[in-house]
Fold isochorismate synthase.
Amino acid sequence: MTQSKISMPVISQENEFILDRLELDNFWHHRSFSFSVDESTKILSFVQKIPVVDPLAVLQQFAPTNTLRFYWENPSKQEAIAAWGITRNLTIESNARFAKTQSFIKSCFKQIISEGDTNINGSEARIFCSFSFFSQSELANKSHPAATIFLPRFQIAKKNKNHFFIVNFPLVNQQNLKQIKTQFSQKIQSIDWSRYEQLSTREREEVSWEERNLFSAQNSQYFKSTVRSALDSIAIDELSKIVIAHAVDIKSEKHFNVTDSLSNLRERHPDCYIFAIGNDRGQDFIGASPERLVSIQNKQLVTDALAGSAPRGKSTSEDVQWANILLKNRKEKREHQAVSDFILERLQDMGLKPHQLPLQLLQLSNIQHLWTPIYAHLPKGIDPLDIVAQLHPTPAVAGVPNKIVFDKIRHYEKFDRALYAAPLGWIDRRENCEFVVGIRSALIEKNRARLYAGAGIVSGSNPDKEFVEIQLKLQSLLKALV
Ligand SMILES: C=C(O[C@@H]1C=C(C(=O)O)C=C[C@H]1O)C(=O)O
């Protein structure tokens, strides 16, 4: 179901509004920035290089909470993107969501006329996508649609030392293109970007939780009983792996601060992808995921098989000890191989020739994982969304075999996974893209947050140890939320 609509008079008013009244706050905040157009309207995608900014600071200052928002950062790759407002969007509530996403994205990029500083790496206009874990949830009041895709009105991007501001602006009258470009350019230059060079640091007080139910005996007993039941199913060969997740609801005295929480996440997890997707109901799904589902640059695909976990040691020797346990443990390796086998098979089914690097460790600040990066060259005709559709969900977040595991997950988990463990990311006109798996994540709304974490269960898993793993993942997330 497309939520796009044309609204010609508003566009021209908006046009006038931007060009004639140049007050900064109104320029950004005016509500008419959040309506979308359909595929018959051309869209000017105007990009301009700007001085150094922190895209998170810009997002904090300008993105209203009543429109779609997206934040994406990979600190170790010196890359960050903030996007907000809607120029075109689509929400999907049905099956075939990846195919529908694909055709929507193609039609969007056909409308775009790119102008400005377009030839520098990182300056591309992107379309942002998030999906729910299941294509159709059986739970009545689900918080997120099966797919949400949008071309934002504004995008701030940082790539290495370069920073860009992009406006995706619906054109009513193309004759004015030159004039509009000049005025956008002047407007962007007139902004005092130095004010957004750094996120204004506030007192990062610890939020006091109503912690009663965080890891209550009831919670832990229920989780462990599901692990035991899954082990029974594994013993009779009904399935060979299942990832069981746990959700914890917390309530703070004050509203959560999304940008400060993101800032904490990027400090604590510089090797992860930091993300946030906000909807028009003021809900934000945020997290720091170590798991790439699909990354494509110039037709080179990279994906991660990531499964099998151990804590980090408090000293170097303890750390090495944990690493060795992880690398040698047969149960952890079984858990991992279920993922790498699945990915290789799915890519081969698409006619690709994937190759994997030797098994290695991905050491994050709080946890370490077994990791196999997998590469493939993409021939013409394979769309990034074909790969997302083929790979989601991998046994890193679901299990083997898929069909049986889906029913079991719905049975064991007393909550809707919503966006947890599902793909989210961006795609550009040249079909470069990055999608991560939305794990190590929380759904935030005002003073409430739901935190998610899951653990892979295979033959040999121990319910107590799996619960410890879940706690480790949840605690790390909890520490970042303010
Ligand atoms: C499911 C999650 O993580 C996954 C499960 C892992 C495991 O069980 O060892 C490791 C990495 C992820 O693939 C999660 O963090 O919620």
About this structure: Confidence is low (pLDDT under 50) at residues 1-34. The pocket of ISJ is lined by residues 243, 245, 291, 306-309, 369, 396-397, 421, 439-440, 453-456, 473 (CB under 6 Å). The first strand starts at residue 42 and ends at 50. The longest helix spans residues 330-349.
